[in-house]
Amino acid sequence: MASINENDTINTNQLAASRPLPPDQISPKSVVLRIAQLKYVFHRNWRLLLILVAIGGVIGFIYDLVHKTRITYTGTIMFNLGGGSSSGGFGELGQLAGAFGLTSGAPDANIFAGDNFLIYAKSRPVVEKTLMQTDTINGKDTLLVNYYIRHSGIRDKEWEDNDSLRAFYFKRAKLPNEYTKLEQIAMSDIYTRIGTEMAVKQPERKSSFMELSCFMEDERLAATFLTKHLKTIEADYQKKQTKKTREMYDLLTSRADSLAKRISGTENSLAEYMDQNQQVIVAQARIRESKLTRNSSFLTTLYYQALTQADNMRLSLIRETPLFTIVKPVYFPLYREVIKTAGMQIGIVLGLILSLIVIFFRETYRSVMKE
Predict the structure, then answer these.
(1) pTM surpassing 0.70?
(2) How many domains does the chain have?
(3) Segment 87-101, tens digit of pLDDT
């Protein structure tokens, strides 16, 4: 019985030692064996690996030769927006409510407030106003949009296959409602390209400074566009922010001019009447003279009141006009960046990936056929 039990114990230990691992576990020995087999796989396929990587590298190198190196110039203007005083919808009452946190949680409807200004500065109407301005470039008055067409690279890229657009230019500055169909297409392509070249941001969230930047393929074009675009934003901003005050100022000025004409007519009539009736002592004639004198005095009082109100409104217009203060203008030379194509690097990577896929299927097929 003792010998039988000893044999049974030995067989049990051998079975326990040769018991396979569960399928969800990998032994260190199998890992080492699989890693050791990789050198045989590399030995069998190293020529294929080198050939495919070399082919990918050659194709990428040819791509780099065909495509030109792109050079861009980056300019930046930093400015501060402020100086305009506007009381808002409820005046001092609204400011008092805001101090106690009683204002509504709705976003500010002012297009020049917060993130609205960032969107507004890149909007198409503002960009078109900038492009339709004339500036002296290289000693010659040039429409900015035509200079952009010639020097931005849009002809060699977006319009490469369109002969009509490659020969296109604007004959004069126009409003958007005056564009022809071809001009609309050209302006749409130009604005789309500028949208990728221009950026408006706030360098610091707690700061009131704004930064306008762009990168273009011509140094003079980038600097001129930045300067003109900031002036366009400033003029349009001031026009919209002071619209109501300017309307009231124009109304008061027109009223003062009208009163001045009425005073001049009344005074002329009074002088003429007094010249013709110097020796007249009839009461009715004196009443007529008194009436003309009273009208002249009344109109004179209204005229001076209108002038005073117009002057006050003009001072209010100056006080409410926002002020753009340039903190950092465009400095020459602009930052120059050479953008090279990475065709060769991409070709090598793609060749390596393709070779690994081919080797994987090749080794799988070899293993299946061997079994």
Answers:
(1) no
(2) 3
(3) 444 444 444 344 334
